[in-house]
Amino acid sequence: MRRLGIHSFVWTGGQTQKGLEMALDKSAEHGYRMIEFAYLRPERFDLDRLARKAQAHDIQIVVTMGLPPQADVSSEDREVVAKGRALLSDAVKAVRDIGGVRLGGILYSMHGKYNRMPSAEGWKNSVDAIAATAEVAKDSGVEIVLEVVNRFESNLLNTTAQGLKFLRDTGRDDVFLHLDSFHMNIEEADPAAAIRLAGDKLTYYHIGENYRGYLGTGTVDFDAIFGALADIGYDRDIVFESFSSAIVDEGLSLACGIWRDTWTDNDPLAAHAKRFIEMKWDEAQRQRAINAAA
Ligand code: MN
C-alpha cells in the first residue's frame, strides 16, 4: 500500500482548528502517514497552517464529504443541482489549498436516507456534475474518488458494479472508486469479488469493521478483503475509519447513525488498527507470493 491513514474522527469532531491540529499530531505519533478530514469548511479553518503541519509530519491529507439535500447533484431540480456543483467546486479548491491529494466520499448524491427511488434524470445530472468537478480537480491536482455506500446513506451508488457504470458514464479516466469494507459488508454479495471487479478503478480503500468498532472483533472477513487487494495489485492508500459517539460531529454522526459508543479510548484503538491492517496486509502479500510460486 502507498500510505496507511486514519480518519480524523478517531481524534476529533473536527469543529475547531485546535482539534484538527491535534488530530494531525496524534496521527503522526501513531505512525500514520495520511489523515482524512470531513466537510472541510475553508472559512472556519486556517488551511495554510494545517497544510504546513501536515507537511512537517509527512502526512498527506484527504478530504471526504457528502452532499446536503439542498445541494444534491442527483436531484431533478436544476437549482439544487447547481448548488451542488458549486459546493463540489469549492470543496476541490479547499482540498487544493490545504495541500490535499484527494476528495472522496458521497460526492454524487445527498448523504443520508432517501425516501424515493433514484431517477434516470438524477443519475444523468449527477454524472454530469462529477465530470465537471473532475475537470476542476484536474486543474487543482486533486484526485476525485466516489465512495460506494450502503442503502441508508445514498440511493445512487450502493454496489461496486453501479460505481463502475457511473464512472463509465462520466466518460473520464480520472475519476475513481472509493470502497469501504463496512459498506461492502452490507451491500455486496461477495466483497472480495467486488474488489477484484473494481481492479485499477479502485484508488482509495476504507477499512472499517461491520459495526465500525475495533478491527477483527466483528464479522468482516478481512482475510478475504486483503487477499482481494493483493490480487489486484493494489498499491494505493488505505485508511482506517471508525466512529463512536465518544467523538461527535453534528453532521457526520447523524448521517452515519452513530448513536452509541463503539469505543471510548482512541489511543489503543488507533494503535491496534495500525498493527491489524499492517499484519493483514503482510499476510495477504506473502500468501499471494506463495500461490504465485506454486
Ligand atoms: Mn467510509
How would you portray this structure in words?
- With 294 residues, the chain is an alpha/beta fold.
- The protein has one domain: Divalent-metal-dependent TIM barrel enzymes (TIM Barrel), CATH 3.20.20.
- 46% of the residues lie in helices and 16% in strands.
- It contains ten helices and eight strands.
- The protein has an eight-stranded parallel barrel, surrounded by seven helices.
- Helix 8 links the parallel strand 7 and strand 8.
- Helix 4 crosses helix 5.
- The two termini are 24 Å apart.
- The mean pLDDT is 96.
Helices and strands in order:
Layout: E1 4-7, H1 17-29, E2 34-38, H2 47-56, E3 60-67, H3 78-97, E4 102-110, H4 120-140, E5 143-147, H5 160-170, E6 175-180, H6 181-187, H7 191-198, E7 202-207, H8 222-231, E8 237-240, H9 250-256, H10 266-293
Parallel strand pairs: 1-2, 1-8, 2-3, 3-4, 4-5, 5-6, 6-7, 7-8
Helix pairs in contact: 3-4, 4-5, 7-8, 8-10
Bound molecules: manganese (II) ion (MN).
